[in-house]
Amino acid sequence: NGIDGNIWNPEKDKLIAKKYSIKNIDNKLLNKKSLIDKFGLEFDETKPVIGMISRLNDLKGFDLVQKAFKDLMKLDAQFILLGTGDKKYHTFFEKAFAKHSDKFAFYLGFDDQLAHLIEAGSDMYLMPSKIEPCGLNQMYSLVYGTVPIVRETGGLADTVDNYDETTGSGNGFVFKKYDAASLLVEVKRAINLFSTDKKTWLKIQKVGMKNRDGTINIDTGYIGNPNLIELYSGVIEGIKILKEKFGFLIVVISNQSGITRGLITQEDVDKVNKKINDILVHGKTRIDAFYYCPYHPEFDSEEKCKCRKPSPQLVYTAAEELKIDLKKSFFIGDRISDIECGKNA
């Protein structure tokens, strides 16, 4: 499980109209135009394109999309859907395409090149799943600077932080209740921000593109293959300075709910952690300890989930076992749950 950075990467993607990165994100607009032109829609860079790539069934949330569809078509946005699944949805979306061809496009089936173009050319990505143990498209979207709009469930909840107008934090838009009204609220909120505050929108895009696991290694999803590990530039040097110059112990604390979901095993996580340390040892440094919580509240008891961040339980465990003075320690992370965990400790 995980993203292959050689395939899903806007800097390397050979299937999109124009490659781009966080440094030249303006090139993303050329992919938007290419996507719009492909379906004969009118191109307007001020109007957001909302993409969807999915199996068309109830578990993926298309009962909500169907219920909200009339209201979605009233919004100042364009929608592009790629997928196949239940025949009732084939019929519904084909009729919708014929009726709303000025702002809704539907491709029945799957096309890999089109999937890449949708990720690169859309401004937002809608993923309203009822159940989503892992989910990859929201992670692709983050990498491509395509802001995800998701329901808070499973892997979507783990990877997308709801944008908070007060703090400015977040990398997407999240709704909790499984109903069409809640979906519409977040879609409207995303469209409003896109239309009224380009500076903040760009910040959210860049947060998603930059924080792909945040602190040590680039996130490729629930990594079960140590060969997918890629450390951020400067990590080795930074850890060496903290350990050698300032005498800090370096401890990694993570949520690994992919274990309880059956997406990865504890052995996989241990191998990945060993791989990280092998790379660091080659650079003459190392992480002193790894702690992780394998549980998730959707699958396990509240008692088991007490180790899950933002709970500070594993911080206390590390402090006791390694004799760490928390008052003289720092907690670094890239997620809201990380910051809350640090505050709670």
TrEMBL record:
<feature type="domain" description="Glycosyl transferase family 1">
    <location>
        <begin position="38"/>
        <end position="192"/>
    </location>
</feature>
<dbReference type="InterPro" id="IPR006549">
    <property type="entry name" value="HAD-SF_hydro_IIIA"/>
</dbReference>
<protein>
    <recommendedName>
        <fullName>Glycosyl transferase family 1 domain-containing protein</fullName>
    </recommendedName>
</protein>
<dbReference type="GO" id="GO:0016757">
    <property type="term" value="F:glycosyltransferase activity"/>
</dbReference>
<dbReference type="InterPro" id="IPR023214">
    <property type="entry name" value="HAD_sf"/>
</dbReference>
<dbReference type="Pfam" id="PF08645">
    <property type="entry name" value="PNK3P"/>
</dbReference>
<dbReference type="InterPro" id="IPR013954">
    <property type="entry name" value="PNK3P"/>
</dbReference>
<keyword id="KW-0035">Amyloplast</keyword>
<dbReference type="GO" id="GO:0016791">
    <property type="term" value="F:phosphatase activity"/>
</dbReference>
<keyword id="KW-0328">Glycosyltransferase</keyword>
<keyword id="KW-0808">Transferase</keyword>
<dbReference type="GO" id="GO:0046872">
    <property type="term" value="F:metal ion binding"/>
</dbReference>
<dbReference type="InterPro" id="IPR006543">
    <property type="entry name" value="Histidinol-phos"/>
</dbReference>
<keyword id="KW-0378">Hydrolase</keyword>
<keyword id="KW-0934">Plastid</keyword>
<dbReference type="InterPro" id="IPR001296">
    <property type="entry name" value="Glyco_trans_1"/>
</dbReference>
<keyword id="KW-0479">Metal-binding</keyword>
<keyword id="KW-0963">Cytoplasm</keyword>
<dbReference type="InterPro" id="IPR036412">
    <property type="entry name" value="HAD-like_sf"/>
</dbReference>
<dbReference type="Pfam" id="PF00534">
    <property type="entry name" value="Glycos_transf_1"/>
</dbReference>
